[in-house]
Amino acid sequence: MSAPILHKLGPFRVPWLNGERHVRVYVPHGRPGAGPQPMHALHPVIYMFDGQNIFHDDPSFSGGWHLHHSVQDLVSRGRPAPVIVGIDHGGRHRIDELSPFRCRMSKGQLNRLLGWMNKTLIPRIHADFPVRRDVGGAAVGGSSMGGLAALYAHYQRPELFGAALCMSPSLWLARGKIFRWLEKQSRPWTSRIYVDAGAREGRIFNDAEKLAAHLRLRGYDDHNLRWRPDPIGRHTEADWRRRAPSALEFLFAGAGAHERAA
């Protein structure tokens, strides 16, 4: 059996966004063979923002998440193991492209990034890698601004993403507009959400707790919502790396190809 490989795609130019970026893809070791595969033989997939941070230490500002190790741990325990698709951020333009809302701090260009993912990236991943193509088998995730972007993407494009991983999400952006926006949105027909934050993150922790309470009021239960308050957590890559394995396990545990929200 060959050693696991990290595939580096690109560089890509995203229409209306600044700069070029790569996409890094990790396929769990022991993937299905080539050619058409039945649904059960394909991996779920998660599209992660801030792709520089989620694998190795070198491209990251303060250490990587080593998600490929987390995925292989799932494989070793017989759990559903997703293909990880890491989308590099645009450097100094990161806040612009990960914000759904125009505000003093951001141009609010997330919808442009999601449009590119829909038209270009997701079809490429479907064509080149052994991933499920149903919404129940696709998630989107990130931390901080990436966590906010993931929550928005799940509700804005429910036909693309059936689950969201939201670590220490920056729900404060644009004076907490995400809460007012969510109140106007229908619940995605299939929805599974992981939310966490550290007790040492101040307002970020309080906002994440508020989000979990909002989702509970909308009917989410322990099957489709995981709120993980971290009593020692800070706003750091090291803490997100520590919490990532259980987050991935929750998002994909028992998710059937046609699972619907209760």
Question: Can you give a write-up of this model?
Answer:
The protein is of the alpha/beta class. It is 33% helix and 19% strand. The protein is built from seven helices and eight strands, in the order βββαβααβαβαβαβα. The chain has an eight-stranded mixed sheet, sandwiched between helices.
Largest beta-sheet characterization: 8 strands, mixed
SS elements, strand count: 8
Give the neighbour order of strands across the main sheet: 1-2-4-3-5-6-7-8
Give the helix proportion (percent range). 25-40%
Mean pLDDT: 89
Distance between the termini: 40 Å
What structural class should be given to the helix and strand makeup? alpha/beta
Percentage of residues in strands: 15-25%
Shape: globular
Rg, nearest Å: 17 Å
Instruction: List SSEs in N-to-C order.
Output: EEEHEHHEHEHEHEH
Question: Which regions contain 5 or more consecutive residues with pLDDT less than 50?
Answer: 31-39, 256-262
Topology:
Layout: E1 6-13, E2 20-26, E3 45-49, H1 67-76, E4 83-87, H2 94-98, H3 110-128, E5 138-143, H4 145-156, E6 163-167, H5 173-182, E7 192-198, H6 203-217, E8 225-230, H7 237-252
Parallel strand pairs: 3-4, 3-5, 5-6, 6-7, 7-8
Antiparallel strand pairs: 1-2, 2-4
Helix pairs in contact: 1-7
What keywords describe this structure?
262 residues; eight-stranded mixed β-sheet; globular; disordered C terminus
Q: Summed up, what is this model?
A:
This protein is of the alpha/beta class and 262 residues long. It contains 7 helices and 8 strands; from the N terminus they run βββαβααβαβαβαβα.
